[in-house]
Write a structure and sequence with these properties.
heterodimer, A: mainly alpha, 0% strand, B: alpha+beta, 7-stranded mixed sheet, 6-stranded mixed sheet, 17 helices, 33% helix, Peptide/Ni-bd (chain B)
């Protein structure tokens, strides 16, 4: 196991270096004068020139790349041009906000998706199966933007059940410690705020989790169907085990591998791709952080932000691979 | 056995539904109890007045030190935390005393002596005095100042008082504790107007020295509100300054400014009672707002202009007849009715009518397609323009132009009628600004401007003088007579004479038609009906100190 782990980790290094090169090239291919965009229409020519020099934008981009990598190796992610704050410090609350939302969305997606998939497979060709799969089809093609606004309209505006925006009740906030507000409110013993924080999580995580939920449901269903037809399940059934035990204990474990892949990939995708959800629900996450950096040509933030997301994505994939090995011990020997 | 399985599954599946269901029921009761300001509780419990204001706006601040920023979202917060020597009378661009009680100007217009308000303290408890003023101005003007931190540039100082090497302010001197004297290198007519800008808010020297680069995250001024906390892209919290030097202010105890990027989501939040005041209401939502008696509409005075600029580098737009012809072929009123929900007025001049020096004698080119065709024929194009015209339409929404592409399409249709074919291009914003500045790709471009300081110079010279090439004059229009007028107006200190010069300038501009001025918009805000005392400022910033809830 440990040599497998080591091997997998070593592979990450060239992947990450490749990432930096790709990100760096793409950013420098975007047209538009960053100095003008950053400082705005009202800045003077002189201060724009000063900014170009300070950012090294007047140097050839190869040398800009090596400067950047040099800083990176020293653990320096650079400073945001717009806010003039070190990125390593600035990005933490954004990452935490996105992490909290992603976890909630994936909990929703996995719980509902896996169960709906199992039930569909179990009751194949029943009305439940058809309904669930039609919902899954709609779910996959649902525009997040629209879904988010509809949720707000129904659950916040009409029913007044849930708050429509933000992460907690700002009028009476809990002090940030971990920046994960669920944990912060528990640490502070603020059960009222914990409840508020959870309520704030519900609508955005449903909006964000709907697509992965649908994908997971379909994946679970087909994977379950395959396993349910295998010999060992027939044996289990023949032994007279209850259907529940057969499905949840014997079949589920073996159908989980492809599902796990999907869960892993979707989690990674959500981390960076949550811009729309974060915009609609005013969620101060990393997707919006990078998006705003792109529109203001905040080069250091775009670079480091994407790199961090890529890094997390790679780590999640690693974890998924390691989990395979746990579920199916044959895998690590391949 | 089968029953067992189904039961378990139903339970698991149902759990999700049950959770959200319960959540709902508890939520409604909890909302009322926790948030003292939810619509239900304020409506019923009239006795307990709300003293926290929650504002929703589209973007976050870049920095909280007003001297180093140029964006409105940053200045909006700084406006609450800092006071300047002078300020604009709420709702206008007229200058009135603030930290400076009174001032004297020497006859040659080169020396300004300010008497400061006594007994004012910064939020950190240190005294506000003449030395503090001197410290701040030195920080902004000295390029080698040790208090100019990494990445800082004092753009508005450079832009209003001249860049290093061409400074307007020669020296700032503390005469005594409460008297400060400015000596200028040359007279500057809008000097007092400039001083009143939020960018020149006076910060605590002790805090700047102590916090250094972190001052931009933890600002300390003398303003009505004390900075408390900044959650980036989420919210900024300000507390009441209990020792504020203006008696009885601020009326609120706390202000929370939240960033809610999506216009519809922000309006939803207002309707749901999560915020009390929202900026930038979409004209589309106006009818919903007006149908809701719990809410009120707030109009910001028009202090902007949206326009189409002709690129003089491209033929045939160097021909005045062509430009006039296209001016005749734009139906401004129809555009306003269709895309601005009536919240705009047709623009005649490059500056808004509310600004002094506006020439209301100038007549607009009326919507007249025959006139337009005739002028095109005179210019040598009896059958319309031979080439397709590239019209740049803004890809982003701005207070003066909520949806540039739609407006461009309406204009396209009008021009089609006089034989001018256009193709609309909307590259991404940074590219857009770059392209129009270079003037190589666009034939006609759409842009706009919101005034900074209540001086006509900030519109006419900034946008149409030859000195503004390259930069804000993206038409490449050069008129020496106009240039002379505008430069003279900058040096003139008699406001009546200046106003006259600007009126002449507007006549020249109308005749030359480098632009098609489109609209002056009235940006919309919305608030709870019981919010009082909010006076929207023309430049986009306002004090929250007078705001209260009934």
């Amino acid at each position: 196991m440990s040599s497998y782990l080591l091997k997998r980790v070593m592979v990450l290094i060239p992947v990450l270096i490749g990432m930096t090169i790709i990100v760096f090239s793409i950013i420098h291919a975007i047209p538009g004068d960053p100095a003008e965009t950053i400082l705005g229409q009202k800045a003077t020519e002189q201060s724009k020139q000063a900014l170009r020099e300070q950012l090294g934008l007047d140097k050839p981009w190869i040398s800009q790349y090596f400067d950047y990598m040099g800083d990176l190796l020293k653990g320096d992610l650079g400073s945001s041009i717009r806010t003039k704050t070190p990125i390593a410090k600035e990005i933490v609350p954004y990452l935490a906000a996105t992490l909290e939302l992603t976890v909630a969305a994936m909990l929703f997606a996995t719980f509902v998706g896996v169960n709906a998939g199992i039930l569909s497979a179990w009751k194949q060709n029943s009305w439940f199966d058809y309904t669930a799969m039609i919902i899954a089809l709609i779910g996959v093609s649902m525009p997040i933007f629209w879904l988010g606004l509809m949720e707000q309209l129904v659950f916040a505006l009409k029913l007044h059940w849930l708050p429509s925006i933000g992460r907690m009740d700002q009028r009476d906030p809990v002090e940030s410690i971990t920046n994960l507000y669920v944990i912060d409110s528990i640490l502070a013993g603020r059960w009222d705020q914990l409840w508020t924080v959870i309520k704030h999580l519900i609508l955005p995580s449903i909006a964000l989790g709907t697509i992965p939920m649908a994908i997971i449901a379909r994946m679970t269903r087909s994977s379950m169907l395959e396993v349910m037809n295998s010999d060992y399940i027939r044996t289990a059934k023949a032994k007279g085990l209850s259907q529940f035990v057969v499905v949840y204990k014997h079949a589920l474990k073996n159908s989980l591998i492809p599902v796990l892949t999907v869960v892993g990939l979707q989690t990674g995708a959500l981390l960076g791709g949550a811009v729309l959800t974060e915009t609609i629900f005013a969620w101060p996450g990393v997707g919006r952080y990078i998006f705003e950096a792109i529109s203001s040509r905040d080069y250091p933030v775009i670079q480091s932000g994407i790199l961090i997301i890529a890094f997390i994505f790679v780590i999640i994939n690693l974890l998924v691979d390691l989990l395979y090995a746990v579920i199916d011990p044959r895998i690590q020997y391949k | 056995m089968k029953k067992w399985g189904s039961l378990a599954l139903t339970l698991m599946l149902g759990a999700g539904l049950v959770l959200s269901g319960c959540g709902g029921n508890d939520a409604s009761s909890n909302n009322g109890a926790a948030a003292t300001s939810s619509p239900a509780s304020t409506a019923t419990a009239g006795a307990s007045t709300q003293d926290t204001l929650v504002v929703g706006r589209g973007g976050d601040s870049a920095s909280l030190d007003p001297a180093i920023v140029t964006d409105g979202e940053s200045l909006k917060i700084a406006h609450q935390v800092f006071d300047s020597l002078l300020e604009y009378k709420p709702g206008t661009s007229e200058v009135q005393p603030s930290l400076a009680d009174s001032w004297e100007v020497s006859p040659d217009g080169l020396t300004y002596t300010f008497k400061l308000h006594p007994g004012v303290k910064f939020h950190d408890g240190t005294d506000f005095n003449a030395e503090a003023v001197v410290f701040n101005f030195q920080r902004w003007s000295d390029p080698k100042s040790e208090f100019k931190f990494e990445g800082d540039s004092f753009d508005y100082y450079d832009s209003m008082f001249g860049p290093d090497g061409a400074r307007v302010i020669k020296e700032v001197k503390a005469v005594d504790d409460l008297t400060v004297q400015f000596t200028l290198n040359q007279p500057q007519a809008p000097f007092l107007q400039n001083l009143a800008m939020t960018s020149f808010g006076i910060g605590s020297p002790a805090a700047i020295k102590e916090k250094k680069a972190n001052f931009k995250n933890e600002p300390v001024g003398t303003g009505p509100f004390v900075f408390k906390e900044w959650k980036h892209n989420d919210s900024i919290t300000l507390d009441k300054n209990a020792n504020y030097w203006k008696a009885g202010l601020p009326k609120l105890n706390k202000v929370i400014v939240r960033s809610i990027p999506d216009n519809s989501a922000r309006f939803n939040a207002l309707q749901n009672g999560e915020i009390d005041l929202m900026e930038d209401l979409s004209p589309d939502d106006l009818s919903t707002l007006e149908g809701n008696t719990d809410l009120q509409k707030i109009e910001r005075p028009p202090f902007n202009v949206a326009y189409l600029g002709f690129n003089f580098k491209k033929k045939p737009f160097d021909n005045v007849k062509v430009r006039q012809a296209l001016n005749y072929a734009v139906n401004k009123q129809a555009i306003i009715d269709a895309f601005f929900a009536g919240q705009a007025q047709p623009a005649v001049n490059p500056m808004p009518p509310s600004l002094w020096g506006y020439n209301d004698q100038v007549k607009d080119y009326e919507y007249n397609l025959d006139k337009a065709k005739q002028l095109l024929a005179e210019a040598g194009y009896p059958n319309g323009l031979p080439d397709t015209v590239t019209l740049y339409a803004m890809p982003v929404s701005r207070p003066y132009m909520p949806d540039g592409k739609k407006v461009a399409e309406a204009i396209q249709a009008d021009w089609e009628k006089i034989g001018v074919k256009t193709v609309i291009e909307s590259p991404e914003w940074a590219t857009y600004l770059d392209d129009t500045k270079a003037g190589e790709k666009d034939d006609i471009y759409m842009l706009g401007w919101t005034g900074d300081n209540g001086d006509p110079d900030n519109f006419l010279y900034t946008l149409l003088d030859k000195d503004a090439i390259p930069g804000n004059n993206r038409t490449f229009y050069v008129n020496e007579d106009l240039h002379k007028l505008l430069i003279n107006a900058q040096k003139e200190t008699d406001q009546a004479k200046r106003a006259d010069l600007y009126k002449q300038a507007q006549v020249i501009i109308k005749e030359d038609a480098p632009w098609i001025p489109l609209v002056h918009t009235t940006p919309l805000l919305a608030a709870k009906a019981n919010l009082k005392g909010f006076v929207p400022g023309p430049t986009g910033t306002e004090y929250y100190s007078e705001v209260y809830f009934e």
